[in-house]
Structure formats: C-alpha cells, structure tokens
C-alpha cells in the first residue's frame, strides 16, 4: 500500500497495544479490521498468513511496533464474526479474507452475469478470474468456488466439473 493509504493510527504506537478500556478497544479492533480489509482489497490478496502479516501488516518498523498475538487474535475473531474472514486451517495460521462477504460477492457476480448476458451460459473459473476490469478479477479460485456455492445454494448457478477444472452455469 502507498503511504497515504495507511490510516493515521498505523503511526500511533498505542494502536499496536490492545487497549484495556473496552470502548477504546472496540474502536481499535474496528480500525484494525478496516485496515486488514483495505490492505487485502488494494493488494488484491485473498489469503492472510499470520506469520507473514506479523512482519508487514501487523508491524510498523518505522515506529518499532508490532501488534501482539492477543491483538491479532482479536482482529481475526472480529473479521470471522463479521463473515469477512474464514480460517483455512485448524491452527488458524492462515485465513481467507473477504473484503466483501461471500453473500456480497455472490450478488456482485450474479449482477455481472445478468448484465453481461452470461445467464444461461457456462463460464470457466479461469474466464471469471481473468475477466477484464471486474471487482472479482484475480479472485483466488478457492474463494470463487465458495462464492459460486452461495449462488448454487440460491439456485442462481450450478458448478460444473470439467476434467481437471471447474465451470459454472448461471441461471
């Protein structure tokens, strides 16, 4: 991210220490969750690795501060509660990050399919991931499959297995 994309709190040392006052902590965790979502949206990243994030996203070397393990857990728990993250592994060392919830992504994809005349046709996941100038362009395939499963559950799409890849038929 560019320096102007970081919130002011990122240069404020107390931002990296879990605040004891519950109201202040709530605002702090809210600011952290917004930062995590913005960071992943700007960088078009769908996976957060905790160890890697400790070195960059959760750490500001210019002020020599790193968010504590407890702080990271609070941020990730908040993101999971709001359906903006999902643990990939049982150890919770990696997470899918959704700057739109899966339901929101499903609505975006459904609107795209309708607006572009793809209703009733089959698209490969490759075509969707590489669609030009769409918010979902570059989406991680596992996340796209989760979004398509939401659409499938609403009877708005059907996931199709094509040899060693997937496709989707929009209704």
The total count of helices amounts to 6
The secondary-structure class comes to alpha+beta
Low-confidence stretches: none
Extended strand count: 8
Helix content: 40-55%
Strand coverage percent: 15-25%
Q: Whole-Å distance between the termini? A: 38 Å
**SSE succession:** HEHEEHEEHEHHEE
Write down the overall geometry.
Answer: elongated
What does the radius of gyration come to?
18 Å
Please summarize the sheet with the most strands.
3 strands, antiparallel
Main location: cytoplasm
Subcellular location: Cytoplasm
GO molecular function, one term: protein homodimerization activity
Family: Belongs to the VPS25 family.
List the helices and strands and how they pair.
Elements lengths: L21 H21 L4 E3 H6 L3 E2 L4 E2 L2 H13 L3 E3 L6 E4 L4 H14 L6 E3 H5 L11 H13 L3 E6 L2 E6 L1
Antiparallel strand pairs: 1-5, 2-3, 4-5, 6-8, 7-8
Helix pairs in contact: 1-3, 4-6
